Amino acid sequence: MSRLEDCFNVGDFAAAARRRLPAPLFHYIAGGADDELTLRANTEAFARYDLVPQYLHDIRKVDMRRSVFGCPLEWPLLLSPTGMTRVFHPAGELAVAREAARAGVAYSLSTMGTTSIEAVAQACSGPKIYQLYLLNDDGLNLHMIERCKAAGFDAICLTVDTIVAGNRERDLRHGLTVPPRLNLKNLWSFAQRPHWCLDYLVGGGISLPNVPTPDGGDLGTLAAFFAAKMEQNITWARVERLMQHWGKPFVIKGLQSVSDARNAAAAGVHGIIVSNHGGRQLDGTAATVDLIANIVDAVGDQLEVVLDGGVRRGSHIVKALAMGARACMLGRPYLYGLAAFGQPGVQRVLSLLRQETARTLALLGCANLDEINRQHITVAGKLPHFLAGTDHPPLSTTLLRSVK
Question: How many CB atoms lie within 10 A of CB 374?
């Protein structure tokens, strides 16, 4: 499957990306930390919940519009910040930002992005969020924030779960370096992908133009820079100072507990993104879809709560909305589309997910997002009422016995 029109879901795009990218780069996108338990759980956990349709409703027009973090969206999706995007395809962040605007969703630019704040602002007419990694020099942090102000970004998203780098064994196993370099571990993998190699060489290499360093974010010094500069003591007082300096919607990404969510509400942030960094940081944490309802119940009336992690279908988005999430974020799906087919790949990924989301809402009997609620979702495999609270064995066990 090598043609764009033959890709019908995220899995198809992942397979296409795997064929185009050298192995170290594909596994950098696809991999997680340690045993990748959380990576897998993020997606698999959606299957623990069944949808409950309610028919005989007027669904001739499904309205998915919603404002999230001050950004007007055509449907409840934000594109997660992803670092070093131009490594996967020379069109990079600009292609993704343009397609986000076309699709009516928000685009998030990473501190580790390979395109500048200013270039993204010029190319993207839609909502824009800047994802901030907090450095231990507030002068550098404020410099990035001032650039976002001048460029007209709509919100700042502070990521707080990367104070220590996750143990990503796939990167070690495949010999990944940044920028990519040939070595004995990966030489054959790169040699098998001549089209990627040509694109990378013609593109003239990459840098990190949003990292405020004297060398302009040269990747050759990136590891040393972040080892020395990444803040490992992020306090709520620090958050409040940054929030006041920014003066627009300020969001925290990476929270996973009710207590942290309550602290965020007390600090006055505009919203939080419930995220485990796609399973790339602390392995063994819960799938975010299993956390979202409790956090919404605790703080959903005080701030906006968005789910990030494991979204691969429009039905996943709808399940999160039913639990109370304001919207969802995703990163890997659009990277697969970009890596395999460039900007048209991103466009098709978003188009398919939008169609799936609208179709799922219609089949549930929901004509707009305000109608979706917890009556539309239940625990998968839940016993019917006539068996609940009885001594009957589970229905599945009874059925199995009957066919033996």
Answer: 12
Number of H helices, E strands in the chain: 17, 12
Question: pLDDT tens-digit profile of 320-361?
Answer: 999 999 999 999 999 999 999 999 999 999 999 999 999 999
Query: Model confidence over 150-202: pLDDT tens digits?
Result: 999 999 999 999 888 888 888 888 877 666 666 767 777 878 888 888 877 77
Task: Determine the Cα–Cα distance for residues 112 and 173; give it in Å rounded to an integer.
Answer: 23
Q: How far, in whole angstroms, is CA 294 from its chain's centroid? A: 20
For residue 277, indicate whether it is catalytic. yes
Cβ atoms of 154 and 249 within 8 Å: the answer is yes
Distances from the Cα of 283 to the Cα of 40, 43, 270, 289, angstroms: 10, 14, 28, 16
In a domain, 192, yes or no: yes
Quick one: angle between helices 10-20 and 23-30, nearest 10?
A: 150
Phi, psi (deg, nearest 5) at residue 103? -80, -10
In a domain, 397, yes or no: no
Six-digit token pair at 92? 């990079």
CA distance 126 to 113: 18
Q: How many CB atoms lie within 10 A of CB 179?
A: 15
Tokens of 38: 């959380």
CATH classification at residue 200? 3.20.20.70
Report the alpha-carbon distance of residue 343 to residue 338 in Å, rounded: 6
Bridge-based pairing state of the strands 71-73 and 66-68? antiparallel
Whether 400 has a pLDDT exceeding 50, the answer reads: no
Type of residue numbered 155: A
| Domain contains 174 | yes
**Domain range holding 172?**
4-379
Residue 276 CB coordination number (10 Å) = 29
How far is Cα 21 from Cα 35, in angstroms, rounded to an integer?
Answer: 23
Cα angle, residue 301 at apex, residues 299 and 305 outer, rounded to 5°? 60
d(CA 92, CA 106): 16
First vs last Cα of the chain: how many Å apart? 41
Please tell me the pTM assigned to this model. Answer: 0.91
Domain count, the chain: 1
Domain annotation covers residue 385: no
* Active-site pick, 27, 89, 174, 277: 277
> What is the chain's alpha carbon radius of gyration, rounded to the nearest angstrom?
22
